[in-house]
Every structure is written in structure tokens, then in C-alpha cells.
Amino acid sequence: MDKIEIVGGKPLTGAINISGAKNAALPIMAASLLTNKRLTISNIPFLSDIESMIKLLQSLNVRIKRSGNSLSLISSKPNSLSASYDLVRKMRASFLILGPLIARYGKASVSLPGGCAIGTRPVNLHIEGLRQMGVNFEIENGYVSGKINGSLRGAEIKLEKVSVGATENLILAATLARGKTIIKNAAREPEISDLCNMLIKMGAEINGVGTKKIIIKGKKKLEGCTYKIMPDRIESGTFVLCVFGCTGTVLLKNLNMEVCNHLIKIFKKLKSLELKILKEGRNLLVKRLNDKKIFLSIKTKEYPGFPTDLQAQLTSALLKTKGKSEIEENIFENRFMHVSELIRMGAKLRQKGSKVIINGTDRLNGAEVMATDLRASSSLVIAGLMAHGKTIINRVYHLDRGYENIEKKLKQCGANINRLKK
Ligand code: EPZ
Fold first, then answer.
1. At what angle do helices 190-201 and 22-30 cross, to 10 degrees?
2. Do 3-19+231-420 and 22-228 share a fold?
3. What is d(CA 245, CA 320) in angstroms, rounded to the nearest whole number?
4. Candidate from 28, 164, 262 with most ligand 1 atoms within 8 A of CB, to mutate
5. Superfamily of domain 22-228, CATH level 4
6. pLDDT average, residue stretch 356-369
7. Distance CA 388, CA 10 (A)
8. 327, exposed or middle or buried, with CB in 10 Å at 0-12, 13-18, 19+?
């Protein structure tokens, strides 16, 4: 297994090209199951989660060709309409094939994902929504099998809790359902809007994109299209926090207006203290100003709030600030696996229920640490860059799920970071 070695303590200076968004690319790739026409998707980030989705779609008879950062996908009728435990366990987004397969072929069977490092993560909302569209489900041997007599029918579905994945699965299914589907209390993440915009290019009729109420009028069939994936706002936010933790000036390139505005908004509290974020067209210039005392209190929330996917990285970035801060995790119940690893590096922080409380310290020390999930891994990278001496991060396959060429991008900004191949 590869490891990452970092010798910390250097400010970051340079420019970074932001990759396409993983969490937009995955549902967009699943949308290939809705048509037998070609989809050509560009700005795909090459990550292990994308490789897992490619394997899953290939097992469902989707022919996939890669050219640079583009994929072409053509889906034909599969022999088997099932996703195995092995694939779903590795990547929960595999569950997103359930809606499209049932919509196109009338049935599908997908392994239940179970728990993971960040919490229990149930899929009841996906299942309940599809049930309201007429699907009968059976749960047997860890698999959920859905079947419909005739075709899916539109329904009015109110999600009991805001869920990105359930909103996406239901939108995907509803594009081929009979009649109108209304999804209330829908998640509003920009990656969902990216999925909707591509489905509209495929001929879907969707209103209320980016709002809590999404209305989809089902079509008999969808066409092919070409589409460019939006920039990754979580990768971008991670680099903003690298600059905050390490000091320096970095230009983040290839963003779009929405991602720029979102980052400026979520980092407003830091901005008013000591981070300068300037929009330069589709780029963002990020600069850490001088040390002031920071007393930050932030809660993670659904979009447009502060994302849970940046909670661990923000924790690391605050470790050397003067003052005391707290971050409350409101989306997942157990997303604090990084805390004990950071303590091993000399961080002064503690977890109290759903909060992490950070007392700034002058010095972090490099140590050998273990990555436990994707964003916990990037928080360890940030801490390693901020620490005195050498940090070795084990299990970096977690990092490779969501960050394209992270060590190359940071190296370009002067970081001393290397991958140790095994
Ligand atoms: C998506 O996961 C993202 N993954 C996650 O990104 C992200 O952390 C999460 O949304 C929240 O923003 C992808 O887009 C591929 P949810 P998802 O359904 O869809 C509960 C990353 O680091 N819930 O919005 O699985 C659930 O337990 C990751 O890139 C139910 O109760 O998240 C959680 O508390 C990891 N029942 C909350 O809703 C359900 O049926 C939000 O989960 C579904 C979810």
C-alpha cells in the first residue's frame, strides 16, 4: 500500500488547477444507464471512485472509452441487473444505479451498503421514494431487490431528511417515469444541479433545479449528449484550508462562478479574521494574512451551509491558530476519526459529542498516522504540511478516492510531499 511522506513547515505559493467534481461525475456516469445513446463527458477527475464506477457500469454492459479526461459511455441491455456487495461496500455511490435500472428495465438488485467509517449511512429514503413510485422491494441476504409491474409512475415525494444520494436516485428514476414527480425537501448541492443540467441536455424535463422542490416530467426515452463536469468545490475548499494552515498565496484555477461564490461565503468567518479570498474571473486567489486570535464556531449543514466534507480539513487548518474554536458535525454521527490521529501529532483538541473543540498550539510534530476515510486523509495531509518534521500517512488509498494528483498539485506550490510506492 502506498504511503505519503511530508516534511512540513513551508508556506504554499503557486497555482493549482482544480479537477472536475467527483460527486457530480459519479451520478452523471450512472445516468448513462437511462439511454442507449452515447454520452460524452469531459472534465472527469481520474480517481479510484471513478474507476469503481467504470467497473460497475461495465459489469452492466455499458461500453466505456476513455480519452484524456473524457469518457464516452454507451449502455446496452445487461445480462444481470445487480450490483454486488464488493462494489457497493467500496463505494456507496454504487447505490445510484438502483433508480436508473428500475426506470429503464423494471427491476434491479443492489447490495445494501451497511455502515462505513463516517457513520451508519442508511438508504431508507432512496427505497421509500422509489416505493412511492410503484416499486415493490424485497430485502434478502443483504440485497435490496426492486421490481415494478409495468412502468414507474410519477409521485409526490417528501424526503423526511435532506439527502444528496436519495435526491439524485429519485431524479434519475423520475426522468423515465410515467407522469410528473415532485421531490420536496430535496438536497440543493450544486453537484445535483450539475446532474439535472446534464439530464436536461439528454432531453429530460426538470424544473426547480437547485431548489428544495424539484419537478420532473417523465419522458419515454432520453437521448445522448456531451457534457462538462463542474469543478470540485470540496477539492477547492481543501486547498483553501491548506493555505490557511500553512500560510502563503495560492491561485486556484478553473473554478466557476457558483463554486467561487460558495467558497467565499463559507469561509466568510475566516475571511473576516485572517484569510483573503479574491475572485479573479473563474479563479480564486487565496492568501493567509497575519496571526490574529481566532474564536471560531461553525456547524456543518447541508448546502449552502458549511459542508461536512470540509469539517476534518478545517479542524486541521485551525490547529495552530491562537485562540479556541469549535466545529459541530450535524450531517454524520461519527465523522471524527481524524481527531485521535491529530492528537498524536501534538494537536490540542478534543471531541465532545458531535463537537470538536480546538485549542490552538504553537507546534505540531510530524508522526506516522493512519488515514481512515477520504476527508480524514486530507486533514492529515494539511496537518503534515503544518507540522515540524516528517509525517508518514498510511492507507492513502482513501485519499486516492477523491483527490486527483494531490501530491503533484501541492508540490507545485512548494510543499515537500512525496508518495512512497509499495
Ligand atoms: C453525499 O453522500 C456525498 N457523496 C458525500 O460525500 C457527502 O458527505 C454527503 O452527500 C453529504 O453532503 C456523494 O455525493 C457521492 P446523504 P450521501 O444521503 O448521498 C442520512 C465525500 O467525502 N440518510 O446526503 O450518501 C445520512 O445517514 C463524501 O466526498 C438517511 O438517513 O449523503 C446522513 O446523515 C462522503 N437515509 C444524511 O442523511 C437515507 O436514505 C445525509 O446523507 C440517506 C441518507
1. 40
2. yes
3. 7
4. 164
5. Enolpyruvate transferase domain (3.65.10.10)
6. 95
7. 9
8. buried
- Pair 413, 14: CB distance under 8 Å: yes
Distance 392 CA to ligand 1 centre (A): 29
Q: Under a CB-based contact definition with an 8 Å cutoff, are residues 117 and 338 in contact?
A: no
Average pLDDT on 171-195 reads 98
- Ligand 1 mean position to 309 CA, how many Å? 10
Lookup: cell for 157? 415525494
The topology under which CATH files domain 3-19+231-420 is: UDP-n-acetylglucosamine1-carboxyvinyl-transferase; Chain (3.65.10)
Measure CA 7 to chain center. Answer: 28
Instruction: Tell me if 61 sits within 8 A of 32, measured CB to CB.
Output: no
- Give residue 150's pLDDT: 86
How are beta strands 293-294 and 275-280 bridged, if at all?
Answer: unpaired
Domain coordinates of the chain in residue numbers? 3-19+231-420, 22-228
Q: How many CA atoms lie within 13 A of 356 on its CB side?
A: 28
Ligand 1 lined by 332 (C-beta under 6 Å)? yes
Q: Are 172 and 31 in contact (CB under 8 A)?
A: yes
Q: Alpha-carbon torsion 45, 238, 335, 212, what sign?
A: negative
Residue 301 CA to ligand 1 centre (angstroms): 12
260 catalytically annotated: no
Q: Which CB contacts under 8 angstroms, 24+ apart, belong to 139-146?
A: 139/112, 142/85, 142/111, 142/112, 142/114, 143/82, 143/85, 143/109, 143/110, 143/111, 143/112, 144/98, 144/109, 144/110, 144/111, 144/112, 145/107, 145/108, 145/109, 146/98, 146/102, 146/107, 146/108, 146/109
Encode pLDDT of 298-318 as tens digits.
Answer: 999 999 999 999 999 999 999
Terminal Cα distance for the chain, rounded = 5
Average pLDDT across the chain, whole number: 94
287 close to 243: Cβ distance less than 8 angstroms: yes
Tens digits of residue pLDDT in 267-277: 987 766 678 89
pTM over 0.70: yes
User: At which residue does the C-alpha cell 485572517 appear?
Assistant: 274
Checking if the pLDDT of 247 tops 80, the result is yes
